[in-house]
Amino acid sequence: MTLPPTPPTGLHEGGCAFADGAYVPLSEAKVSLFDWGFTRSDATYDVASTWEGAFFRLDTHMDRFFASLEKMRMSIPYSREALRAILHGCVRASGLKDCYVAMVCTRGVPPPTKYGARDPRLAENRFYAYALPYVWIAPPDKQREGIDLHISERVRIAPESVDPTVKNYHWIDLVQSLFDAYDRGRDTSCVVDAQGNVAEGPGFNVFIVKDGEVRTADRGVLEGVSRRTVIELCGKLGIPLRVAPLPVAEVRAADEVFLSSTGGGVLPIAKLDGVPLPCFPGPVTQRLHDAYWALRKEPAYRDEVDYG
Question: Does the predicted TM-score (pTM) go above 0.90?
Answer without folding.
Answer: yes
